[in-house]
Amino acid sequence: MKKVTVVGTGYVGLVSGTCFAEAGNQVTCCDINQMKINDLLQGVMPIYEPGLKELVDKNVKRGTLHFTYQITQAIQEAEVIYIAVGTPMTSSGKADLTYIKQVAKTIGENLNGYKVIVTKSTVPVGTGKLIKSVIQEHSFEQIPFDIVANPEFLREGDAIKDSMNMERAVIGATSEKAFQIIAELHQPFTSNIVKASLETAELIKYAANAFLATKISFINDIANICERVGADVTKVSEGIGLDSRIGNKFLQAGVGFGGSCFPKDTSALLHIAKECGYEFNLIKSVIETNEGQRVQLVKKLEKALGTLKGKTISILGLAFKPNTDDIRSSPAIDIIPYLAVHGANLQAFDPIAIKETKKQLGYQCAYSENIYESIQNSDACVILTDWQDVKDLDLIKVKELMKQPLIVDGRNVFDLETMKDLGFTYLSVGRPEVRQKTAASKSL
Ligand code: UDX
Questions:
Q1: In the predicted model, is pLDDT for residue 199 greater than 70?
Q2: 204 by DSSP, 3-state: which?
Q3: Residue 162 and residue 24 share a domain
Q4: If I label 208, which of 2, 125, 301, 313 is the partner at 20 to 30 A Cα–Cα?
Q5: Which residues define the annotated binding site?
């Protein structure tokens, strides 16, 4: 059992802290946002994540998980301090380390015995060293401490599962003692421990996310070629994915990746490369392809409709992927303002991300948690998130509800033959177009 303090109760901090508590450690999660802490003390979660509330409630009840905004006390009492504060992207695409530096300063000022200070946030290479120097600068005596980089690989929507059963833990430590302490902490979650230097561990996180993002942009580029030569990208994915050296995951073509990690981390990696004098052209292209996917989807829609002005368009899905209410860098957040500015009437559906979207986009569109309500009388449906509600749509009912049967699908949800048989004009990504044959649809 270890005494762990986690600074920052965002996705990573809250989930990791809760899982450390579940494994029997004494965990204190702290945040400077008092409202967030007050909510957590009352059992209200700041994020939607399946299974999180149950695990938090259980561990609060049995006394292994605590919440506080008294950061100084939480630091003084801890043996291990996890820094899990945000590293937002600056306008230049660089990671902003303001919060990390603030926490390091507070740790330095409150260092009262040997502690292991761990970064969990995705931080640029060299941040561990920076934290070390900030702590040294602000601690009063020469109290020993160690720094560890222990990046997080959890996926939103699967966060608890990913944390309780990690595929691997990457531990980059400044001493063997610190490595052992953090390795022990991870024993309940995985036996695959990658021991590395601080810098290597920091880079592993960026390399992992950039590689996954590259897979997605690669298949999206292939999809764009498929559209031009009449091939089907889903079959290409299947055909290459069965090669175990390639693997079948992250080969789903679509409107591109979003979320809090891939867009931010690919840009940050580009900066890290630039700062050490290397032009990482591959990642530059990955980012460009991803941005292009959104544009192409809108172009397809515009071409099919003739004009956006005065058309009623259903947006199916606001979250960047299913099972989360996270809209950060979500395709919908880019696409809705464009369509609204060009005079379309928008009816957006999402089961859980409407509240967050309203905060950011206000009333540029009407919102509904009822998918059929948002489809009513529309000239086109645009699928941006592959929610189960979208997959489960009664397509006959959809056709009846729509003014004309046009679906532009950014997630390749439906089978082409089915759409053809039902008489839809169905434009997906990297697959042959399905055109409605009846006279009424000539304009589509
Ligand atoms: C990702 C990483 O998977 C995780 O390891 C890391 O810790 C944080 O970033 P997350 O952002 O939660 O996790 O989402 P993920 O499930 O990886 O999907 C990212 C984006 O890629 C989504 O927008 C998704 O729609 C898109 N995607 C994914 C594709 O477009 N095609 C695919 O084949 C897979």
A1: yes
A2: helix
A3: yes
A4: 2
A5: 31, 36, 87, 122, 153-156, 205, 250-254, 258, 264, 321, 328
Compute, in angstroms, the gap from residue 168 CA to the centroid of ligand 1: 18
Compute φ and ψ for 108, nearest 5 degrees: -55, -45
Residue 207 lies in a domain: no
Note down the domain range covering 425.
289-441
Pocket test for ligand 1, best of 52, 160, 216 (most atoms within 8 A of CB): 216
Closest CA to 311 of 243, 257, 380, 367: 380
Q: What proportion of the chain, given as a percentage, has pLDDT over 70?
A: 98
Q: Which ligand 1 atom lies nearest to the CA of residue 385?
A: 25
Note the pLDDT tens digit of each residue in 396-432.
999 999 999 999 999 999 999 999 999 999 999 999 9
Out of 134, 168, 196, pick the residue that ends a domain: 196
CA distance 331 to 142: 50
For residue 205, tell me if it sits in a domain: no
d(CA 413, CA 424): 14
Q: Cβ(412) to ligand 1 under 6 A?
A: no
How far is Cα 201 from Cα 174, in angstroms, rounded to an integer? Answer: 11
Distance of CA 416 to the CA centre of its chain: 29
Asked if residue 256 lies in contact with residue 215, where contact means CB atoms within 8 angstroms, the answer is: no
Active site residue 29: no
pTM over 0.90: yes
Measured distance CA(133)–CA(108) in Å, rounded: 9
In a domain, 247, yes or no: no
> Are 19 and 144 in a shared domain?
yes
| Nearest Cα residue to 82 out of 185, 191, 188, 190 | 185
Query: 364 alpha carbon to ligand 1 midpoint, in Å?
Result: 27
What's the number of domains the chain is made of? 2
Residue-by-residue DSSP string for 344-358: -EEEEE-SS-HHHHH
Same domain (yes/no): 328, 185: no
Instruction: Give, using CA atoms, the residue closest to atom 34 of ligand 1.
Output: 250
Q: What is the CATH number of the domain that holds 26?
A: 3.40.50.720
- Domain end, chosen from 196, 212, 236, is at 196
**Per-residue model confidence as pLDDT tens digits over 258-310:** 998 999 999 999 999 999 999 999 999 999 999 999 999 999 999 999 999 99
SS3 of 412-435: CCCCHHHHHHHCCEEECCCCCCEC
Catalytic annotation, pick one of 226, 261, 365, 381: 261
Question: Which tokens hold the place of 168?
Answer: 């691997």
Residue 67 resides in a domain: yes
Residue in 349, 341, 361 with CA at minimum distance from that of residue 314: 349
Q: Above 90 in pLDDT, residue 147? A: yes
